[in-house]
Amino acid sequence: MIKIAVVGDVHDQWEEEDGIALKCLGVDLVLFVGDFGNESVDVVRRVASLDIPKAVIMGNHDAWYSATEWGRKKCPYDRTKEDWVQEQLDLLGDIHVGYSKLDFPTLSLTVVGGRPFSWGGPDMKFADICKQRYGIGTIEESADLIHASVKSATYETIIFVGHNGPSGLGDRPEDPCGKDWHPIGGDFGDPDFAEAISLAMTENKIIPLVAFGHMHHTLRHTKQVIRKRVFRSPEGIIYLNAATVPRIVENVRGKLRNFSLLQMEGGVVIQVSSAWVGDDFKVASEEVLYQQPDKVVQAV
């Protein structure tokens, strides 16, 4: 049994206690789906120092002051002298899997990253940063580069991680990659990510999980429902949107920290849950989002 934690969009909410919580949960692997903050170097430094096997991909907020004209106008530092995007990448080193991969020999699996700094949608919103840093100018080139990581993977079992999820998971605003701002509706997943996953499937790779965030669970156009968080494909792949925002909340009893928790066995995800961990580092509440039929899963 492999236990995996997926940390949704952080948005400056990462503390020393989060690392302790993960240790207490006994996870074998932690996946971070990006948006640590607006080029929040200090948050990334704390994540990089976490002493648990991990893989990270950067989100659009992690290049907030560098990738767009309006962001550059509000940049709090001198971009001719500093580069906070590069500082984050340097801190993460090999654990940043955007357009790359990371093998985990003790788990016999490879984590492959999608397009880093993704904004979502059919176009490459942050095209300049992809061109400057990775030489990628089109969706097709992006899909090819992700697929190259699949082909170089050491293991047949591959977990995909992206900031935004792939296209093809539904066209409603409430779907995992749905567009919930005006005009609402439509699939806002990444087509290059979807293409790379499809190619991996044709090569008979074992794909238990595709983890991502970006599209927050709370919706802008309605408060009656929250976003669909888990989608199971006909092939048995679990697609998980882990973007619970805010991921740390406070009540009269203290702080609660959110983690998406998965249990995997034999290359198959058998349970997914959304867990809130209290100040005693025990699970205060847990919502099971998916469970393999007829499978008994041990409690966290």
TrEMBL record:
| Protein name per its UniProtKB record | TIGR04168 family protein
Q: Specify the superkingdom.
A: Bacteria
- Which molecular function GO terms apply here? hydrolase activity
Q: Which CDD domains match?
A: MPP_NostocDevT-like (cd07397)
- Where the record annotates domain Calcineurin-like phosphoesterase, the positions are 2-217
List the Pfam families.
Metallophos
Residues in a coiled coil are none
